[in-house]
Amino acid sequence: MLVPSPAQNVVINALTDTLSAFENQRNRxxxxxxxxxxGYSEQYIEKxxxxxxxxxxxxxxQNLTRRVCALRGLSFKRPPRAYVDPQYxxxxxxxxxNATRRQLERLTxxxxxxxxxxxxxxxxxxxxHEVLPFFEPLFLDxxxxxxxxxxxxxxxxxxxxxxxxLTYAVWTEDRPGFQGQHYLINTEGKVTSVxxxxxxxxxxxxxxxxxxxxxxxxxxxADASDVVRADLSLSVGMTExxxxxxxxxxxxxxxxxxxxxxxxxxxxxxxxYLPENSTMGMIGPTADLNQIIQSLRFMTEATLQxxxxxxxxxxxxxxxxxxxxxxxxxxELTDERAASLEDTWRPFEHERFEVDxxxxxxxxxxxxxxxxxVDFVEPENQIMSVQDEIQYWQWRFDNNLATRExxxxxxxxxxxxxxxxxxxxxxxxxxTEPVNRLLNRLQQS
Length: 445
What we know:
Largest sheet: 6 strands, mixed
Order of helices and strands: EHHHHHEHEEEEEEEEHEEHHHEHHHH
Number of helices: 14
Oligomer: single chain
Low-confidence stretches: 157-163
Strand content: 5-15%
Number of strands: 13
């Protein structure tokens, strides 16, 4: 939404004209995509069937969308290693951060453009995070390509409220000659203050915007509509296949040349008497089930391959591919992930840290060290034999490429700091213990 000036009264006037149309075509489309992601697709599938047909079989909702988003969202599959001021973790909900980052990556692939908010919790006295799938960025009509503000609905999570009672939060950042603002506004344009003078205490938006790819023609980038369409087609096709199986099993019976239908009684314990010159028969689906299944499989494979995901099936002899073969098959997805790390998620992590750091400074007075770097952990999707794992760690130990701490962290993903310190103390007493323990564990497995 374009705004002539960052002045509060100008922004409020512009928002008042927009609030009644917030449920625009873009947000309705995002609702549609989220319905498939969250598994609420039955309402769209049943449109292709008459009510009489759906009484024969249940709807086969496949939820291909969620699986594809999970397969593409690998950057935060394991929490990245952050090199940051030790005080940072004291003021941040780390488990919640890891969970919302993982959700953010999946929804960014699904919706194309997302917003990620950092907020201070007075109850928990720490920074917490949430994803914002529905929002309206605010731009100045001067041509600045970066938003200076954001408006998003406050979710009530189950409370029964009508659309006319929705409340929206507004944040704008400091601009030359104008101080950033923060307030609430309802659909009628009524402003509710959250502090004196509606000041944004941080001077910047506590929100980071994320794009699936760099914007080209529109600030909102392309989404996963192709995956959702394939999901819908697959679910419709699977439901039709179930109908074919059902009708093929019981058939559709018919009788011709019967003058009075009341004379016909059916049942496994009844003898059917047909009048003279009458005929009885049964027909079933004429579709070839194997051809239908192959068509559905082809459609699914094409959609996944277009999104850099390769479907892995057993070969003709029933043998599973080797680890090296699987790694080569996934090289396209690996390259795509590496590109998204550098283009999207590493810049996002640095900007998110700057937002968190500013919130912590304002709320607690603690100034964190500005140095921050992040090391994304490769997903463990490669399969190694026992001997391969022994050689891998032994080679790293021998060439000083891994330490005892590296081994501990790799084999204890959910460790805490006290466990790590205990591990260090034990290993200081016996320097060769980590290597010996590793080799003994692997050789006994």
